[in-house]
Design a protein that fits this description.
It is built from four helices and six strands. It is α+β, with helices and mostly antiparallel strands and about 150 residues long. The protein has a single domain, classed as Hotdog Thioesterase (Thiol Ester Dehydrase, Chain A, Roll), CATH 3.10.129.
């Protein structure tokens, strides 16, 4: 997909990302890198005996990070993204287990120019779905994007 400037996004527009399978090693790497040293994420025995779920799952922060990566990979904000302005109403609806495959649907809910006039804020709802089309996570994300008349500093 080609990059889309602020003016190219309209309320109701939708895109869907490629999918990716989440590996157990990726969960381990993220937990170590982010310092998520909670038994829930580092101990298989704890998960078996005390977790709400029968097997290892990804921390919510990892799901959000992978979501952002899939959106960047789509190309829709390459070269036009200026800032992640806000993340709101993040809700985790079910776990994403090691071995699950995720994808993201993205829908525009608002778009407005900034006072500078050469850029705008676009608000999206991101819905993360697993391989069974079950919703794993939903959040609202606002991004500042270049307009077609943006002048680089």
């Amino acid at each position: 997909m080609e990059a889309r400037y602020f003016e190219d996004w309209k309320v109701g527009d939708r895109i869907e990302t490629l999918s990716r399978t989440v590996g157990d090693a990726e969960i381990s790497q993220f937990v170590a890198l982010g310092g998520f040293f909670e038994e829930l994420f580092i101990s298989e025995e704890y998960v078996k005996r005390k977790s709400l779920y029968p097997k290892r799952f990804a921390p919510g922060a990892l799901i959000f990070s992978f979501t952002e990566g899939l959106i960047i990979l789509s190309g829709c904000i390459h070269g036009v993204g200026l800032a992640l302005v806000g993340v709101d109403k993040m809700a985790f609806k079910r776990p994403l287990f090691a071995g699950d495959t995720m994808r993201v649907t993205v829908e525009v809910t608002a778009a407005r120019p900034t006072s500078k006039g050469d850029r705008g804020i676009v608000t999206f709802i991101h819905r993360v779905l697993n391989q069974n089309n079950e919703e794993v996570m939903e959040c609202t994300v606002s991004r500042m994007l270049k307009g077609r008349n943006y002048k680089d500093a």
